[in-house]
């Protein structure tokens, strides 16, 4: 993925990934869903997608990374997807593989919610398991 200078509408796959992450239950989820409903994006480096919401307001998340997902890349390695929120605003979707290699293709939206990244899960919020078919 090459860095982009201009903000743009998210691709269908990028939108699907964001929506899939928002299927997990965590504090601030509803507000993030609204904020990400009208968002512009740009690739800022390999594996980093800047998010710029066009909606005013903030999400009362408890952690900078309120939700994380994972899926398999074409080579079988796990891709981690982390939604970063600063001062209640969604700012970045980070994607990386454990071995540090390049992502071969964006994962399908059948990713799995990773509760360890979500403090809300440890506080008793219901955990929706979102599983990638290859991980089941």
Describe what this molecule looks like in 3D:
- The chain has 136 residues and is of the alpha+beta class.
- It has one domain.
- Helix content is 17%, strand content 29%.
- Strands 1-2-5-4-3-6 form a six-stranded antiparallel β-sheet.
- Strand 1 and strand 2 (48-53) form a beta hairpin.
Please outline what is shown here.
The protein has three helices and six strands, in the order ααββββββα. The chain has helices at 12-21, 29-37, 119-122; strands at 39-45, 48-53, 67-72, 78-86, 89-97, 112-113.
Question: Which terms summarize this structure?
Answer:
136 residues, globular, alpha+beta, 17% helix
Helix content: 10-25%
Strand order of the largest sheet: 1-2-5-4-3-6
In N-to-C order, the SSE pattern is HHEEEEEEH
Strand content: 25-35%
Alpha carbon gyration radius: 14 Å
- How does the helix and strand content classify structurally? alpha+beta
Task: Produce the secondary structure layout.
Elements: H1 12-21, H2 29-37, E1 39-45, E2 48-53, E3 67-72, E4 78-86, E5 89-97, E6 112-113, H3 119-122
Antiparallel strand pairs: 1-2, 2-5, 3-4, 3-6, 4-5
């Amino acid at each position: 993925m090459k860095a982009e200078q201009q903000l743009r509408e998210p691709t269908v796959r990028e939108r699907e990934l964001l929506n899939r992450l928002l299927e997990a239950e965590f504090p601030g989820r509803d507000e993030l869903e609204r904020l990400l409903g009208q968002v512009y994006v740009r690739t800022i480096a390999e594996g980093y997608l800047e998010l710029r919401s066009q909606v005013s307001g903030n999400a009362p998340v408890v952690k900078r990374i309120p939700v994380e997902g994972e899926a398999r890349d074409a080579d079988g390695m796990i891709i981690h997807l982390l939604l970063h929120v600063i001062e209640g605003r969604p700012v970045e979707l980070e994607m990386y593989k454990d071995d540090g290699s390049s992502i071969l293709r964006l994962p399908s939206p059948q990713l799995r919610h990773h509760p360890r990244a979500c403090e809300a899960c440890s506080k008793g919020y219901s955990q929706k398991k979102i599983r990638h078919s290859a991980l089941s």
